[in-house]
Amino acid sequence: MKTVQEAIAIRASKQKVFEAYVGHINRWWPRQGTYRYSFAPAGREPRHIVFERGLGGRFYEVFDDGSELVIGHITCWDPPNRLEYTWRDPSWPGQTDVSVSFIEENGVTTVTVTHSGFGAAGIPAVGAGYHTGLVEILAAFAGWVADESLLPGGPHG
After folding, report:
1. Which of 69, 64, 68, 71 is nearest to 44 (CA)?
2. In sequence order, what are the residues at sequence separation of 6 or more whose Cβ sits closer than 8 angstroms to the Cβ of residue 69?
3. N or C: which end of the chain has fewer CB within 10 A?
4. Residue 108: pLDDT band by 50, 70, 90 thresholds?
5. Which residues pair with 110 in a beta bridge?
6. Considering only CA atoms, which of 90, 89, 86 is closest in space to residue 99?
7. What DSSP string describes 7-63?
8. How far is Cα 90 from Cα 110, in angstroms, rounded to an integer?
9. Dist. CA 131–CA 139, nearest whole Å
10. Is residue 4 pLDDT above 70, yes or no?
11. Overall average pLDDT of the 129-146 stretch
12. Rounded to whole angstroms, how far apart are CA atoms 143 and 14?
């Protein structure tokens, strides 16, 4: 599988959904599901996952000992419409690409995530597992966003 894609609809404006995806990823990103959603090395625990805003910004994880691992870099920054970034497991020979689009219609934003380049990165068989992970990650994201009180401008924010 060279490309995986999944979409989810969330009842919120695309501005709010984009901000939640980028600005609050550490709050909604699951650390465990079918797979462990962290690059923390053995003996270390994940602490934070972060997007640095803007073109070229890092997408990285911070571990309990203060060390960091850069997962990728932002290659397209078009808030609140689109976000694209690279993704690379340290054990892979190359990097993959993630594209996230945010399309709003009648107060519902559809978030579509496309993770591609597994073949070009030299890991074509990995894509199937990443599809399972993508389903779980988007479900966690939608569940977090559904509680509008967690977002700026929500009932309590």
Report:
1. 64
2. 39, 60, 61, 63, 90
3. C
4. very high
5. 9, 103
6. 86
7. EEEESS-HHHHHHHHHHTHHHH--SBSSSB---PPTT--EEEEEE-SSTT-EEEEEE
8. 31
9. 12
10. yes
11. 90
12. 16
Distance CA 41, CA 109 (A): 35
How far does CA 76 lie from the centroid of its chain? 14
Q: Which residue has the tokens 């995530």?
A: 113
Residue 51 near residue 57, CB atoms below 8 Å: yes
Give the torsion through C-alpha atoms of 38, 42, 45, 50, to 10 deg.
-40
Side chain identity at 135, as an amino acid letter?
V
In this prediction, residues 64-73 reach a mean pLDDT of 94
Residue 151 tokens read as 């977002």
DSSP lists the bridge partners of residue 104 as 109
C-alpha span between 49 and 112 (Å, rounded): 20
